[in-house]
Amino acid sequence: MALEIERKFRVIHDAWRSHVTHSVEMRQGYLTQEVGKASVRVRLEGEQANLNIKAAVTGSARAEYEYAIPADEARELLATLCVGRIEKIRHYVPAGPDLSWEIDEFLSDNAGLIVAEIELPRVDQPFDKPQWLGRELTEERRWYNHYLALHPYNRWPDADRA
């Protein structure tokens, strides 16, 4: 089984920007509205496209399967079959010799939200937490992309954005 081990945090200031090695625009949409056993996503990263299936559980470790698909098919799926969409710029920041922060700067209906994720080789893998990280979001479903696609951040009450 393919396993993704990932931790997610709020970003509280812009000090990370001077460390970005590269960035890519992403558009993604979900083929399932209700959260059942899995979320099914189509993602377009520049001209690369993938179909992704993730176990619909919260936490740092979950099953994940990803398959390359033609970019034109991804654009068609995003335009016709997806029930929720996200636009973002993903920035990459080194986090040590073999780790990298993926910092998602959301656009459109989720503009203003910036979240950092780090993929780890083990659940108990130690990593340095830069000072620009805020609180951890790993265990909170409302900060997951699938939820944000269906319930955009800019429509949340102010009290829920903290």
UniProtKB/TrEMBL annotation:
Residues 2-150 form the CYTH domain. PROSITE patterns: CYTH. The active site is at Y30 (proton acceptor). SUPFAM superfamilies: CYTH-like phosphatases. It holds the Pfam family CYTH. It comes from the Bacteria. InterPro entries: CYTH-like_dom_sf, CYTH_domain, NeuTTM/CthTTM-like. Transmembrane segments: none annotated. This is Adenylate cyclase. It comes from Solimonas aquatica.
